[in-house]
TrEMBL record:
GO terms for molecular function: D-amino-acid dehydrogenase activity. GO terms for biological process: D-alanine catabolic process. InterPro entries: FAD-dep_OxRdtase (IPR006076), FAD/NAD-bd_sf (IPR036188). The keyword Transmembrane helix does not apply. This is D-amino acid dehydrogenase 2 small subunit.
């Protein structure tokens, strides 16, 4: 076992904060460096809020390739590609296409499930020991299908998923409506078009930003130093080791660093001479305020056809509805595209017309965009880097909230010199 050290965590999204959490519990002196004025203001701010432990199949899969051409041609498609003169974008796309092979995608699913189940166990321990109010609820999840062929395909996958430990069952349309009465609203286009759904009772929801703020408070109370508003410009090296973190405001000496910079991780890694296969997949969300006396969703929902997720989030006496979706391969800009926001708004209005008062329009529903730090295969990158005292915890794509605690515990174990509780095959930096 290594001795305790002075460790610097680069980035204060959910990956950085959870890493700091386990490091400080292992007795290390921890500093967190973040360019924004607060924690979790980027991808971890208003994500889909689903703790999606059983739904980890990567975007890259055999069924996705035939859908890509029509998606690329439609302006309202869930996935949109904006070609750029950027070799990083094209290389990522090529690797994504190669990862769509059935064998690759099934192996990725198996590996991600081991990490997600581990993360779930850690989340259960966390909520039983700590008292952060983040709208955490064990709602279960219903994934809805509008085309019979897609539903049949999902049913065929049930046995495979069960063999890996998922607790799921198939429901016909009437059973879906009985489970979630808002789908029975005669104005709900989603309710009318579905042919069936897959229910997973063990899925959960929670607000990643509120969790992050609560964690920040706990970390400060345990002596973690936060350098907010500090942009990391580079890392100083001597004799092949990192010696200090350079920021726009000064240099911070360190024994060891953990890179948790989300979609920006490859930008820093390039300055150190190594490539991380991470590219931003831009997504959007809205947070719908409840009607004063209105009904709210009792279960988390995924519209598999339109690739939109709905999660009820409780805060004090009200339950808001987080609606998230879209995957735009459009570079690093986090500009909010009003056309995409309007599309998401219309999806929500057509799916759950009674969920809120839609009259004020999307601008009244906290429109937000974030960059998922996506790897082509959908596997995060955990552990060693080419530098012995620089560790990686990045590239969690669409599952960074779900996988946060497991990934962070693995990092802390590796730094401690202990064997992580799940196998690391496939999670490490490709050489
Ligand atoms: C629309 C949408 C919906 C999603 N829904 C879900 C969901 O339902 N469930 C789920 O599990 N996941 C979901 N995700 C994915 C999840 O939100 C991300 O995987 C996760 O937030 C990534 O966390 P992170 O800490 O790696 O990155 P970030 O949260 O982006 O954190 C990286 C931090 O590094 C900082 N940083 C970057 N560069 C520098 C620098 N040079 N110097 C200093 N600081 C720097 C950034 O400011 C940022 O705070 C969703 C994502 C999106 C966009």
């Amino acid at each position: 076992m290594r001795a305790t050290m002075h460790i610097t965590v680069l980035g204060a999204g959910i990956a950085g904060l959870t890493t700091a959490w386990y490091l400080v519990r292992d007795g290390h002196a921890v500093e967190v460096v973040e360019r924004n004025s607060g924690v979790a203001l980027e991808a971890s701010f208003a994500n889909g809020a689903q703790l999606s432990y059983s739904y980890v199949a990567p975007l890259a899969g055999p069924s996705v390739l035939p859908k890509v051409p029509p998606w690329l041609l439609r302006r309202d498609a869930p996935l949109r590609f904006y070609p750029a003169f950027d070799t990083r974008q094209w290389r990522w796309l090529l690797e994504f296409v190669l990862a769509c092979r059935r064998g690759t995608s099934e192996l990725t699913t198996q590996r991600l499930l081991s990490l997600s189940f581990y993360s779930r166990a850690l989340m259960h321990r966390f909520v039983s020991e700590e008292d952060i109010d983040f709208g955490y609820a064990r709602t279960g999840k219903l994934v809805l299908y509008s085309a019979q062929a897609d539903f049949d395909g999902a049913r065929r996958l049930l046995d495979f998923q069960r063999s890996l430990g998922c607790e799921q069952d198939a429901l016909d349309r009437a059973q879906c409506v009985a489970l979630e009465p808002m789908l029975g609203d005669s104005r709900s286009l989603l309710g009318r078009r579905i042919v069936g759904g897959i229910r997973t009772v063990s899925e959960e929801v929670g607000d990643c930003y509120r969790f992050s703020r609560g964690l920040e408070e706990k970390l400060r109370a345990q002596g973690v130093v936060f350098h907010l508003g500090s942009h990391v410009t580079g890392l100083e090296t001597r004799g092949g080791r990192i010696t200090a973190v350079n920021t726009a405001t000064g240099s911070l000496p360190t024994d060891l660093c953990v890179m948790t910079l989300g979609a920006q991780s490859p930008v820093l890694s390039r300055t150190l001479g190594f490539r991380l296969p991470i590219y931003p997949l831009k997504g959007y969300s809205l947070t719908l305020p409840p009607r004063p006396e209105g009904a709210s969703l009792g279960i988390s929902i995924t519209d598999a056809t339109r690739k939109v997720v709905y999660a009820p989030l409780a805060d004090a006496s009200k339950i808001s509805l987080r609606v998230a979706g879209m995957a735009d391969i459009s570079g690093y800009s986090n500009r909010i595209d009003p056309v995409r926001v309007k599309q998401l708004f219309l999806e929500a209005e057509r799916a759950f017309p009674a969920a809120t008062d839609y009259a004020p329009g999307p601008d009244a529903m906290q429109p937000w965009t974030g960059l998922r730090p996506a790897t082509p295969k959908g596997m995060p990158i955990l552990g060693a880097s080419p530098f012995p005292n620089l560790f990686l915890n990045c590239g969690h794509g669409a599952l960074g909230w779900t996988l946060a605690l497991g990934s962070a515990r693995i990092l802390a174990d590796l730094i401690k010199g202990a064997t992580p509780e799940i196998a690391l095959a496939g999670f490490t930096l490709p050489r």
